[in-house]
Fold:
Amino acid sequence: MKRLILAIWATLSVLLVVPALAQDQLPPAPLAYRQLDDPVLEAKAQRLMETLRCLKCQSQSIADSDAPMAGDMRHQVRSRIAAGEDPEAIRAWLIERYGDYVSYAPQNKPIMWPLFAAPLVILLLAAILLRGRFRRGPAKAERAE
Amino acid sequence: MTAETPRRAGLAMWLPLALFGAFLALVIWGLYRPANTEVASAFIGKPLPQFDLPAATDDRPGLSSAQMQTGKPRLLNVFASWCVPCAVEAPQLEALRRHGVEIDGVAIRDRKADLDRFLATYGNPFARIGRDDLSEVQVGIGSSGVPETFVIDGKGVIRYQHIGEIRAEDVPMILAKLKEAQS
Amino acid sequence: MIAEIGLAVLWMAAALAVLQLFAGFSALRPGGKALAGVVRPLAVMQGLLVALSFMALIDLFLETDLSVKLVAANSHSMKPFIFKLAGTWGNHEGSMLLWVTIMAVSGGVVALVEKRLREDTLIATLAGQAFVSLGFYAFLLLSSNPFERLPEPAPEGMGLNPLLQDVGLAFHPPTLYVGYVGLSVAFSFAIGALITRDVGPAFARAMRPWVLGAWIFLTIGITAGSYWAYYTLGWGGWWFWDPVENASLMPWLAATALLHSASVLASRNALRAWTVMLGVIAFSMSMVGTFLVRSGILTSVHAFAVDPERGSFILALLAIYIGGALVLFGVRANTVTEGERFSLVSREASLVFNNVMLCGILAIVLLGTLYPLMTEAFGAKVSVGPPYFNPVGAIFALPMMVMMAVGPLLRWRRDNPSRISATVAVPALASALALLAVVLLAPGINLLPMLGLAVGAGLALASWLPLRGRNLRRTPLSVWGMVVGHFGLAVALIGAASESAFSTERLAAMNVGDRQSVGPITLRLESIEPVAGPNWTALEATISASYKGGAPVTLHPQARTFSSPPGERTESALHTRWNGQLYAVLGNEGDDGRWQMRFWWKPFVPLLWLGGLLVAFGGLLALIGRVAQDVKRLRVNDKIAFRKARQEALK
Structure:
């Protein structure tokens, strides 16, 4: 019995090591960890990278992930920005490949309209609820005095 | 909300419960839906982007998008030697090859020595292998991991994407997809 | 033996909770008065027993008793003391035991000290508390027994996730927990008051210290969590609008709204139904948050203890308690009148405005968090992130902060705007000047940080104005609390806006001896050497940094490798100055032997967490002030009662 548990333990520890091994050994892409020389372009790239989702990670942008694929995507973004491409064009290019999931910035599509309408609906709802209160409010307050 | 308008207020008081009900319905559906952590490519039905990858090994040529328009459907396998499921699916790729399927490989972020060892150990079913050190082709076709297998029709259009390793039971399905792509 | 005692005591506590529930309910029915006397002692006993059970679990972890499954799965004999201790609650079962412990102990404290509330309302409250606790007892005892033994003791423990082996994180979750569970007391009060139709100032006064206490813990928990994410994730971000972060923010927003509406109810007897509703919402947000984190229904970077089965259990509890409370609210709310009225220009009105804005933010955060799930139901996978939350949140948050500057200067019930216009002109001017300075000195920064800096500057000044014309020594502590709390929020806002507007980043591949610069700081990589910790080894860089050519300081960022369980983590190094923070990360070694280094200079970013702590400190001041007031009032009441009794006796 004891040996069995030891065996299970050994297997578990090996399994835990495997994901660590299942990483490539290649150095990161040239622009994964290097900024563009032009600070204006770099800022543009940075702003875009912060709003692109890392597809291999759990809810992180490619701007703050060490996953190799995030590095490759940063390389893509930086080299395209350096080539003079518009950030929104790069976003559209990625959305064409991965769908809206890749962009943290909600796109102007019918399925997102309720999300954009939400703040207006909330304000409207609040206005309706409060209007009733205040219109009669002052009169009542005076009566109470 | 006020004593003067009890009826309307009465309905408003049930609004939170209604919203809560909607929330419950949503998350119950969310809890019991099949786990769906994969990001499917949105690029299916579109022609392959232009690419020209250098050879990843000595005994197989590199891979360019032009070479994939052969008039006959073929498979594009995105893989890497450092990926365990890629080793798992090797026998299935070999089986597909024996069915007469032509398979092209894209090796993601791989070293030649590692790749040679991998192919020597698990077999080499590929007609061509391109090396994609910057995941350019991978991103270009909307693939988000390894292994992934794409069915490409004779005109070079992506017809189907299989995410994860191909298991033995998937082989007939892949063959059917290839047949479908013929028409 | 300890494990068995812990389990037995836990079962007994659960049994007492059943008794407490039934005794409470019978006592509320006509003719059941006989049982009224036992409810309080039951609640106290239950609290004691659960505390004992929790101490048993702590003991098992400190001794690393590897025959207990939970200890073997989450601890390790080599772990430093502090992480053995933190291991007690750093896992699902232990955290659930902590949950019932806090719940039962606070129930016991309510039973011991609460004397202002009508007796039947208090009994209803305690019965409600027992009812809620029972669900969690069932959860613990039926599906997540923390005391379960292994058939054979494990040779060694599995250890704790390396990301979690951090002092900040050892105390961050339990802090949030105390906040979450503290809101359950407010929930029980709301239920009790609804059952006995006793929603009034006494209810608000009884509930207020609990809300305040919970809110303080939530504030500290969120602040600490944000700082933890900032320095362990290694990319300099402090808030990602990740589902788990949102899950902790939502109860805070609800609790903040509840805190303010309870104040209105306590001092002005207005906003009755609204306060009760918020009491229910605040705790429901705690449970929704716990559910979102534990079920793994949404992908998160902070997902550690994910299990859909546990998710179902929490969801069932959520449906029973929150659904039940909302039904009760729907049935009873019509009998709760809104209470005193007030004019459009009054302290109450400003508080109502801010309540609405807070609930607006809450709704936006909840909707944005769940939206990807909703669209998935329609077959579309989308992401909602900072580009949505930041501007839309600001639509509500910025007007709210403007109102925070004005509201405390207004009188209750009715005021004349012209009375305070001269006073308000000062902070308005400060805002305008700040705006002008930013536009002139830092052109090209985004609109949101610009507005944030302007509003922050105005509020930082305006928050002190309520003290104007007061005798500072006689000013009640609760007023000081409000002032410090509001000031803290302004400070945090300035820190956040400044971080977002002025941060500079430098990524560099460096050889030992190379120089780099980031913002006003010049850096030199002095050496890279291996070092060892208790259960990790690391590569440690030595970097000397000098601010504008001044005296250099040394930083030691590390790349750690953990052995039990195996894993890797970067340990960033920080150098804090009064005007900002230098953030350094050691990355991998490149093929050419150069090291990947990441540096950030973040002007005024520490204000963010300092502000958070100030907000919590303001809450603490208010809490002390309120409790002291209550104690004084109790003493006076006791004296009056004593005199009355003596007069009766003399007659």
